[in-house]
């Protein structure tokens, strides 16, 4: 069976247990969903995801509070990443047939003086901090200084990112974005090759009331080759991007994109897409799980966000048409019950649902995220690059 529309939702960072190569990343024991379930002690209420078969993916070790169901409504499985990193860019590119094979630049001791000086010379502003830091902690600790001086708060993490934080009343968004665009331009190639430059604006009167705004903007590397989204667009199909999808792919392969302010807003736009008459692929990223709860190691907030998503998921399921296919997955883990504050190397869940499909069954362990994109291409009879294996024929 083929579908007129495919909806892909990436629940950013919602891993489902350590991957087979977790030891290579220092992530043995990571289990984002497992540790969230344990934190809630049976009170993690995810009725729609439960019915789809979320715990069936790990039926011998179900997520606490999420039952294994006898007749799941979706086909279910999990996917293993083959890219050399565990950042959002790596995960999304791989989903769309472009695994990242060249390691990106990581700077656990801060960025080289030469790079910092280039940013300072271009911006006319001093760089402060320049070391790994939690995004909320860094504005708490340095935000008042930044407001007083106009300096740039530059920081990083265990991912290949250079983040620049600035108060919106001190450095206007247009200027902050311009500085980040410059930083992007000088970190594309070695010796830096940084995956993402991220503008991190914030507001508030003092350190106890600073909040980061929805005006975050990611300046990612340009895709190094065609992606499955490029192939769909070239074949004449609609490719609708919701959330940071547009940033991650630098606008490539997209016919219509929309910025979002939150998970709820992302689901609102996805549901709106379901009400449109289009033929092709709607691709959504819900970043709050990662940015607001995973990196902050907040299992309570993470679980509450999952429950809120599940409610909106019910709204989407109710309006899907028989010729719609919904695929839910994630791009990496970010276990709020694990050490550190960085992404975790985990399998990611895979759920595929359509009102026209029969009772679900196991899709097993997919050996690459690229099986997602291969399935979308297969559905629309568009040739790919032989990276990934379609599971379309297994949905019956």
From TrEMBL:
The record's listing under Pfam families reads:
Metalloenzyme
Its cofactor is: Mn(2+)
Q: What is its main location?
A: cytoplasm
Q: Which cell locations does it reside in?
A: Cytoplasm
Binding annotation for Mn(2+) 2: 290, 295, 343
Enzyme Commission number: 5.4.2.7
Pathway the protein contributes to: Carbohydrate degradation; 2-deoxy-D-ribose 1-phosphate degradation; D-glyceraldehyde 3-phosphate and acetaldehyde from 2-deoxy-alpha-D-ribose 1-phosphate: step 1/2
What family is this protein classified in?
Belongs to the phosphopentomutase family.
Q: What does this protein do?
A: Isomerase that catalyzes the conversion of deoxy-ribose 1-phosphate (dRib-1-P) and ribose 1-phosphate (Rib-1-P) to deoxy-ribose 5-phosphate (dRib-5-P) and ribose 5-phosphate (Rib-5-P), respectively.
Protein name (database record): Phosphopentomutase
The organism's lineage is: Bacteria, Bacillati, Bacillota, Bacilli, Lactobacillales
């Amino acid at each position: 069976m083929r579908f007129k529309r495919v909806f892909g939702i990436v629940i950013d960072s919602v891993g489902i247990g350590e991957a087979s190569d977790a030891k290579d990343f220092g992530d043995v024991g990571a289990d984002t969903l497992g540790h969230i379930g344990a934190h809630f002690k049976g009170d993690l209420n995810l009725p729609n995801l439960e019915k789809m078969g979320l715990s069936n993916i790990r039926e011998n070790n179900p997520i606490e509070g999420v039952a294994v169901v006898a007749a799941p409504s979706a086909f279910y499985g999990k996917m293993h990443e083959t890219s050399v990193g565990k950042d959002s860019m790596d995960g999304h590119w791989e989903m769309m047939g472009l695994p990242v094979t060249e390691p990106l630049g990581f700077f656990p001791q801060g960025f080289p003086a030469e790079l910092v000086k280039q940013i300072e010379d271009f911006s006319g502003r001093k760089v402060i901090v320049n070391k790994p830091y939690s995004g909320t902690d860094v504005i708490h600790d340095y935000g008042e200084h930044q407001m007083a001086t106009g300096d740039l708060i530059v920081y990083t993490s265990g991912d290949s990112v250079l983040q620049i934080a600035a108060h919106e009343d001190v450095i206007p968004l247009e200027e902050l974005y311009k500085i980040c665009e410059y930083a992007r331009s000088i970190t594309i190639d070695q010796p830096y090759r940084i995956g993402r430059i991220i503008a991190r604006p914030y507001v508030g009167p003092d350190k106890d009331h600073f909040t980061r705004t929805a005006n975050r903007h990611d300046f990612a590397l340009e895709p190094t080759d065609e992606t499955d989204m490029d192939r769909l667009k070239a074949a004449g199909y609609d490719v609708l991007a919701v959330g940071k999808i547009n940033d991650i792919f630098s606008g490539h392969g997209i016919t219509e994109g929309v910025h979002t302010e939150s998970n709820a807003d992302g689901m609102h736009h996805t549901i709106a897409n379901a009400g449109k008459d289009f033929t092709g692929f709607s691709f959504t990223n819900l970043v709050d799980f990662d940015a607001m709860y995973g990196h902050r190691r907040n299992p309570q907030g993470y679980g509450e966000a999952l429950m809120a998503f599940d409610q909106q998921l019910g709204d989407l399921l109710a309006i899907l048409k028989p010729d719609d296919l919904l695929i839910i997955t994630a791009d990496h883990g970010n276990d709020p019950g694990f050490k550190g504050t960085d992404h975790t190397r985990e399998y990611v869940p895979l759920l595929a649902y359509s009102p026209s499909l029969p009772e679900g069954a196991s899709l097993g362990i997919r050996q690459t995220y690229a099986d997602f994109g291969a399935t979308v291409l297969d559905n629309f009879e568009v040739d790919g690059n032989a990276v990934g294996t379609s599971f379309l024929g297994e949905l019956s």
